[in-house]
Structures are given as structure tokens and as C-alpha cells.
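Field guide to reading this record: the first block holds the primary sequence, the second block holds the structure written as C-alpha cells, and the final block holds curator observations. Each block starts with its own label. This record concerns Xaa-Pro dipeptidyl-peptidase, catalogued under organism Apilactobacillus apisilvae.

BLOCK 1 — SEQUENCE
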Amino acid sequence: MKNHQYAIADYNLKIAKKELTDIHFLDKSTDDIKKPAELLKTFLLKAFLDSQSLTIRGQQIAGMMASFEENALSFLDKNAPLSKIGFYNIALQLLHFQVGEDFLIDNPITKMKDLNLPVADVNDEMNLYDTICAWYLLLNTHNKYGTTFVDDLASKGYFAQNLNSFSKPLIFNGKTMPVYDTNNLIREVVYVEADQDTDNDGKLDLLKTEIIRPKESNKNKVPVIFTNSPYNQGTNDKDGKDLTHNVNIGLQHKEPNNYSYSNIKAKNNKEKLPEPRTVEGKTRKAEQTLDRELSYTLNDYFLARGFAVVYSAGIGTYESDGFRTTGDYDETLSATAVIEWLTGKRTAFTNKLDNNQIEAYWSNGNVAMSGRSYLGTLQIAAATTGVEGLKTCIAEAAISNWYDYYRENGLVLAPGGFQGEDADVLAAETYSRKQNASEFYKNEEAWQKQLAKITEGQERDTGNYNEFWDARNYLKDAKNIKADMFLIHGLNDDNVKPKNVEQIWQAIKPLNINKKLILHQGKHIYINAFQSIDFTDMINLWLTYKLLDVDNNAPELIPNVIIQDNTKEQTWNAFNEWENPDSIKTLHPSQNNELIDDFDHGKKQFKDSVDSKDFQKYCLDYKKWRNDLVLDREDNPLKDNRIIFKTAPAKEDFTIDGKVKIQLNASASQNFGMISCMLVDYGNDYRLTETPKPLGHRINEGYLWREDSLREFKMKMQKTPYKEIAEGHINMQNRSNSYQVDDMEANADYDMSLELQPTFYHLLAGHQLGLVIFATDFENTVRGNQDIKYTINLAESNIQLPIRKQ
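BLOCK 2 — STRUCTURE
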């Protein structure tokens, strides 16, 4: 384990004494204690639960060692001077580290530093004040299982012993504590009326909205975490599968155009809306409840801390009105409508028939949004409206421009793992409204027309950026964002690719808001249960600041950018900025298949078609295709289907920070074609696993509450010969941009520029950087297996690397 804690708030003796009093470690009885050892014993007795007998608690203390010679109980009972070593011997055991296995009893402070755990700045012979400060810091220190000591105590029932004796909310070290009874939560459903009629039935759409909130919110207003999840009410997996598009089709020549942006700019065709429903009555009591929601464990964590959690699936989902539209402004409106209701600016009803109004009287008007993927995407969509009351977004793996999810530079491009999916497929999958039989039969004809409209608009036959995609590009309105943004993304996410987070990060840079970014080495995952980083604590600090207005210094404490290193386990580094290279290194491809500093003349060729048996094999096994594409072997079926250029082995470590740019002068033997490029780290070495591994421990989100599985990226047991860093694709007829189609003739040379997915990649000394140039990407592009030959002119081609020195 190597710990990284960014969310420990600054403190001093005064703060420590007050907050230890607030959580009942200090009280009137401790005022009379004169010896540090006696005070530490008192702390330990309280930590081992007042509800247990004094004998049992003493037994637990005696189970720890303070030194080689003495257990903790006998050591503390002597009231001898308390040494710093003795304190941290006990501290490590409280943090679940085992003597003899995890650390040696005579060297705990060195072990604390090796684990990157904070050590209090106290005297070697501790006084009372030292003991108070060291205990306070220890309570805020992560244990072996990735949670703070105080949260560990909470999960065992420390606060549950007497919930009513604690202030609510209870703030400790700038973060909210789990002092709310999760066995007594209120669960209710309302129907928010949105300013839209997406199914054209002459009535404004009602959106089913599920609420889980603490009982105390009936008297005291609470902050809200809102997760807008189109999957929340179920999915139609068969519909999605049946609608999935065939990708084994050839690329075609596109009719040239001379479009400018004005030709494809989305039009705001506002239609006259129905009148709002007439309110027939008002109530504070909901009529409908819910059982087990499709929850997110980060939300569960905050339910125990007094936050309300709200889920809504949006238009076209089960028990809501409307039709699915996949990412356009109607979906944005269905998100902001719920926020507006939570802030008292919109109407909701207890059911869909009686027009009985219900208000969010329990909400303090401060809303955060949470969730990953589509859930994160709708956060960005909502934020770009500047909707009042949305204080922050915790957007994980979010789409910022739907074109960059399903397309790239004039090509149809699948999100990783979902070949053949498109906007219409996603709409069909999430149209859970049809799971209500009467709704299905009533709306089937109109829904099929809506689905056909999406299919037509997505223009799968061209891959061009058009009015349909422009309506789903949130970057255009990023200037309107008022909410503070906390962005999280995987550098290896091949589903929502890193370009999406890079673009929104760049777009919000000029804005006068707080903004944070975490980049991890995962694919399309959550990181809230990682052992090595205090992500959940950071979000606690952040939301306590944003939604409870606690001045805990969160914007200053949490680094602007945190990036996980790709060469070591459990290593995170803080930076002021991403895409901040020291230099741009330009290299040129050579006849010897090297990347060199100087120009080289000549040409290199590769073909696209493969043997039919190999074609079928690669369509089913992307890993096999990728290995054959990247690795050099004489019997390799793809040896003529790509060109590989490599640098000399690196003399020292360096980092690629940002977007690698490829300049190519190329031709194709047909009047159409595509170029794909992949940047590769060549070097036989141990690398991190592609997915985080469970560590065999469950994290409790509160007392007798929900759990999550602790996990972490580990080094693979065997060395691997390469690691893909980034890739990019371009239709040769979209050399100017993604909406202008340029003419193309067979065997004619054309200049084109291609940016690979943005990255932050640590290349080790001795490794080689490789550029693989090819055409068909079996995992992502259409696969026509066409007889096309490509030629690269070396003298007019190069690769530009943004380099940050280590």
C-alpha cells in the first residue's frame, strides 16, 4: 500500500480540541487527565465502543503491542512517558497493519513514511497537547483498507451508539460525518413537470423522480446529490442488440461539399408548448415510494452523512413521459427541470393524474450532480445551461461532444467494446417507458417515427459532423457554466475517450469557477473505492464546501490536477495543469522504419485487405488483431497491413503530456480511404493491469449500511512487450474538418493532420516509442476488407510529441 491523501484539512491545537469534543473523544472528564499515556488509553477505550464492557475494551487494547516487551494496556497503565514510537506502534495497529507482517515494532515511524501516511509533528516524548494533535491526525489518516480511521470507527458503530447526541450535520476536519440513521431513510417518488413535450401528446412531460433523504430533512433542510441516469429504470437490451448496425461494410467515396459551420449549425426550432397543468391541490406527503434503487456507492456514502440523493432517468423512461433523444437539448431540459424543482422554481406532482403539487421543502437549494458515463454526460449538459442551484458536478468519464463518442474525423467510430452501436441503438436501449405495457401499445407508432428520425439524423453512411451532432455538442455552450467542475477520467478509456474530458477541461479554463481534474490509468470505471487515493474524502471535502457552505479550504487543498502514474503501483502525482509540456519534439519517419530527427525521402506502403479467414478471426478477437498489428513477426498475417516506425531506446525517462499530432502526406489506390495511427510503448516490462483488482476487503459506507469492494491496479505477474498509448483515425476526405468533405482521386497525394487521443504517459528509459500507421481498426471502424493500398511520403510526414521532463 502507498497512501495519497489530499483531503486532510489544515488544523491546529484549538481546532483539534474543539472537533475532538464535537465527536466526544474530549469531554469534561478528560480535562482532569494529566498524563499523556492516560489520555491515549481514554481515547482507545472510547474508540472500542462505550457499549462494550470495560473488560472487553481492555482486552482489545491488550491485543496490541506498544513495544517488544509490553502490550498496549500494560504500557499505558504504567502512566510512563508516552514516546512517539510507542504511539505510532499502536497507531499502525489501529489502522489494521499487522506487526511482523506489515511493519516491525521498533520502526513504526519509518513505516508510516514508507506508506506515505501522515505523521504528527510532535515531541519524541509526547505531552498532552501532542497526544491530542496526534490522535486528531490519526483519526483522519487512511488505514490499510482505504478509509480513514474515523470512518472505520463509524462503520463499527462509534456514532451509532448515540446518534442523537451529535450535531447534524457533524463536521470533522472539514468533512461531514455519518451521523444519520440509514435504517430510517425516507423514500418517495414525485413527478416533475418539464418545459417540453417530446412525445407530442399535447401535455408537458412528467419526469419520475426518486428521492432518498434522511428523516431529519422533514425539519432541517439538507443538500442534494442528483444523479440523472437514463439506465435507472431499466434497459431494453434485446432492442439494442436487434438494432445494432452491421460494421462489416466498405468505406465509400463521399460527395464533396464546400460546407462552412453555418451549413450544419444546429437550429433552435422551438415549438409552442402546451400550457402547464393546473394545480388542484398542495401537499407535503408523497403518495409513492421505492424499494432498492439502482444506486451509486458514492451516493450511498453521502446518505449516511445527511445528504438527500435524487435519481431521475429522464424523458422516455419507465413511468416518465416523453421519448428518448440521445443527448440533445431535450435531454438537457429533463435534467435541469429536476434541479429547478429542487431549488423551488418548478412544479412537481404526487402522481400523473391528480395535479396534486408537492414541493422539495426539505432541500436547502444547493445541488450537486454525480455519476459516470451517460450520467456524467448529462451533468455537463445541465451545467452548460448555467441552471441556478447547480453548485458543482462530479462528472466521471463524461461525454462533452457526442460526435466524439460515435464518430471521428468523418468516420463512424464505435465506443470501445460496442461495435455497431450508435445514437439510435442507445435510444432504443434506454426507452424503458415501453416496459409499461399500456405505454408501449399507445406510443409504439410514434416511438418508431422518433427512432427513425434519430437513425436518419446520425448520418451513419457519411460519418460527417452535421446538424444532428451539433445539437449534441455541449462544448459550444461551455461558456455558460457557473457550477464548479470536478472531472474524472481514465487515460485508457476506450469507451468515452479522453478527448471528451480534454475538450471540456480546455473549455472551462477561462471561466471564473473552481475546477479539478483526476486522470487515472483505468478504462471506463469508478475510482471511489481505490486503496491508494482518498477520492471519496476529497469529494466529501468538496461537497461539504459547496453544498453546506463550510469554509474548509477545499479549492486550495485539492490539487488542480492529479494524475496516476502508469509505471508504478499506487502512485499519484499532483500538477497545476494538464497539457503543459516543456517542449514539442518533432520526429520524422525513415526508410529504415525509424523515427529520427532528420528528414528522410522515399515512400512506404501498406495494404488494407486480409485473407478471409484472418478477417473472420479478427472480427471476433480484437486482442489477436491488435497483437498482430503491433508486434513484428515474419509469419504475422498483418505484416503488410501496417508500417511501424520506432525511436531508438530512450536514454532517460520522459512524459508525453497532451495531444500527439501526426502530419501525413498520403495517397490511396481508391478515391476514398482512411488512415489510423497508434502510438505504442515498446519494451518488455511489467505493466499495470488493465482493470483494477479486488483486494478482498469490503468498504462500509456507514454503520450497517451498504458496502463497496476495495480495489486497486496491480502490476501484472508477467512482462508484456508493448502498451498502446493513444490512437486516432481520419477519413481522407475530411482533411479540412469533420463536416467539409474534400474531393479525392485515386493515387493522388494529400496532406492531412491527425491528433491522437490526449494522454499523460510516462515512458521509461530503455523503451522505444512506436508509431503504427494502418487503415481498418477492427475494434472501432467499419471493416470492409477492401482492396486498398496506401502510400506514405516520408519527407512530408512527421510526428509531434508534447514532452514534459520527469
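BLOCK 3 — OBSERVATIONS
The CA atoms of residues 93 and 101 lie 11 Å apart.
The chain has three domains: 13-176, 182-246+285-520, 583-805.
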